[in-house]
Amino acid sequence: MKTLVTGGLGFIGSETVVKLIEAGHEAVIVDNLSNSKLAVLDRIEGITNVRPRFYKIDLCNLDAITDVMEKERPEAVIHFAGLKAVGESVEKPLMYYHNNLLSTMNLLDAMRKFDCHNIVFSSSATVYGVPEHVPLVETDPVGHATNPYGETKVMIEHILMDVQKSWPELNVALLRYFNPIGGHPSGLLGEDPNGIPNNLMPYITQVAIGKRDHLRVWGNTYPTPDGTGIRDYIHVLDLAEGHVATLKKLAQNPGLVIYNLGTGKGTSVLEMVHAFEKATGVKIPYIIYPVRPGDVAENYANCDKAAKELGWKAKFDVVDACRDAYNFQKKNPNGIE
Ligand code: NAD
Ligand code: UDP
Question: Which end of the chain is more exposed for a tag (fewer CB within 10 A), N or C?
Answer without folding.
Answer: C
